[in-house]
Amino acid sequence: MRAFIGVILAMGLIQIKGKARGYWSQRCPLIRLEGIAEVFPRDRFHNILRYLHFVDESRAPLRTVPDPDSFYKVRLLLDALLPKFRSLYSPSRELCVDESIIKTKDHFRSRDVVRNKPVKLGLKACVLCEAKTGYILNLTLAGGGEQPKKGLKNSSVVQNICRPYHGMGYQLFMDHSYTSFELLKKLGALSWTACGAVSPNHGAPTVFMKKNSQDLCALKRGDAMFQCRDGVVACAWRDAKLVTVLSTLPVGTEMTHVNRTPRAAHKYQRGATVNCPVVVAEYNRFMGRVDLVDQRISAYRRHMKGLLWPHKVFWYFLDIAVINCYLLYVASLSQGRAKLKPREFREKLAVELVGGNSFCKRLPPRLPSEELRFNRQLEHAPQRVATASRCAVHLQRCETIYACRACGVRMCPDPCFYLFHFKADYVYDD
Description:
Layout: H1 2-13, H2 34-39, H3 42-50, H4 75-87, E1 94-103, E2 111-113, E3 121-130, E4 136-141, H5 155-161, E5 171-174, H6 181-189, E6 193-198, H7 206-211, H8 213-217, E7 224-229, E8 232-238, E9 242-247, E10 255-260, E11 263-264, E12 267-268, E13 272-277, H9 278-286, H10 289-299, H11 309-332, H12 342-354, H13 370-373, E14 382-390, E15 399-404, H14 416-422
Parallel strand pairs: 1-5, 5-6
Antiparallel strand pairs: 1-3, 2-3, 3-4, 6-9, 7-8, 8-9, 10-13, 11-12, 14-15
């Protein structure tokens, strides 16, 4: 199984569109990969892929059960990997939550369409990662049995995914898909400080938007407006467009500067600075690591057709595990030591997993022709070799450490050497 996973990683390094059979193609030798073909026969690889399951189907939940787990086929995989991710790494204070899409076109009731993502069709996952490095700590698949019932907001999803870090004083950053006034109050009761962008038309406090609607429209670039309620600060800042943020970070109404290149009279002004609230600057600094993880995964995505959604989830978790391993490797390096690039790390990991194994049946060496066997001008003589191998003359299995110097065929000195070089029918039944 280790060699199988190593081959899967190698397929991500050398991407072939279409079906996986292209890696063993005999019709087009230019795209055939000898390295993969030497490790795994094509049929053996597809048989493992065909029977790769992560649950006993006889224990599948009945459809009559209320709120069945839609992801029971990969639930054991999630329960095994996610606690391992958290146990191997202690994150820094800043964490972020965002959604990721596992690409699949399989007909599945939990499949979503997200038009503002590079991958628009697939399974939606809510991902919690460290905001500085992008190390994945926890995730949940949308539509599973652990999801909240209909009518509840995404705040329940965020609270569930952050549960292992409740009461530890972490900071959480999220986008408008999850941010709400009620969620920030609930997280504050659990010793979290949070910050998230909200849409002015959806998610922003209604009192704040209606009460200050005229003042918001009058804001110029770099101007900001704040309002505090129950410990939650609502901030509206005018950049190229209006930006609205809810926050419980201990920065209050502090301001800072950001660099911008505003366009005036069809020319860009270089070196311009714009006033910016610290809460917005912190949000821009620590948000977006999940998108970076998606970018890293897409760089080594396997373009295989015809796979079911459990296989796609397995590929996704395999890529996440490799990314987390690389981040652990970088964190373990001492100062001044050169580190491997992500592609070089994947290459070494794939080679280590294969471990020099080969599951291809090797054909026996072709025996020399009669002209070579009976040619007396050649130096036919027994020669001792370092390792023992099967005698080519014995009918029974017999190991020998001798071979013919001219023919290169393994055989016993007596009587196999004489029979092979003087008899047309040389098989010896001992």
